[in-house]
Amino acid sequence: MRDPDLKRRSIYLLPNAFTTAALFAGFYAIVQAMNGRFEMAAIAIFAAMVLDGMDGRVARLTNTTSAFGEQYDSLSDMTSFGVAPALVVYEWALRDLGRWGWLAAFVYVSGAALRLARFNTNIAVVDKRYFQGLPSPAAAALVAGFLWLVVDNRLQVSPKMVSWTAFTLTLYAGIAMVTNLPFYSGKSFALSKSVPFWGILVFVAGFVFISSDPPVVLFALFIVYGLSGWGVWLFRIRKAKKLSIAAEVSGVK
Question: Transmembrane ranges (predicted)?
C-alpha cells in the first residue's frame, strides 16, 4: 500500500530550482550592497520577486507541491525579502541616521519574520483572495524600488532627505507586514485558464509600460499596492456600517 503522505514528504526539482534561484538573487543583492553597487542590489531583489512568484505557480501547475517546498520557500523569502532589503537599504541610506537607521532596518526584518510565521500558521484559515498584511515581496519592492528610483534617475535631493524618506518607507513596510490589512493576492488568477485576445494585448501593453522606465513605474505601482490595503479596509468598514444600518431599519419595520 502506497504511503499517502509520500507526496507531501517528496522533494521536487523544478519548483525548488526556482526557489533556489530566488534565494541566490537575495544573497546576490546583499553582496552587491556590500560592494557599493546598490542599483544591482535593487534589481536583484526584483529578480527574486519574479522567481518567487513562479515557484509556487510552477508547483501547482505541475502538481509537485510538497511540505519541503513550502518550508524552503519561506526560508528563501526571509532571506530575499526580509534580510536582504533591510541590509541593502541600511548600507545605502540608513547608516547615516545612526541608531535610528539600524532600528528601522530591524523593525523591517522582524516584521518580515513575523509575517512569514503568521502566513505559515494561518494558510488554511484565511481568505485566499487576500493576504493578511503586506506580503514580504511587496514590502521589499517598496524599499528596493525607492533605492532604484533615486540611484537610476539621479534625483537632485539632499542625502538627509533621502535617508529619512528611506527610514519612513522601511518603517512603514515593516509595520504593514504585521497588520491585518487585506491586500489582494492575485491567487484567483490561474495561468492554466484561457484568456481572450484582448488579455494578451493588455499583458503586452503592461510590459511595454513597465519597460519605458522600470524604476519609476515599478515604484509607483508598489506604492499604490502598498496603500491599497487601507482602501480595502475602509471599503469593508463602510459596507459593514451600511449593512448594520439596513438591518436596524428592517428590524424597526
Answer: 12-31, 100-118, 130-150, 162-183, 195-211, 217-235
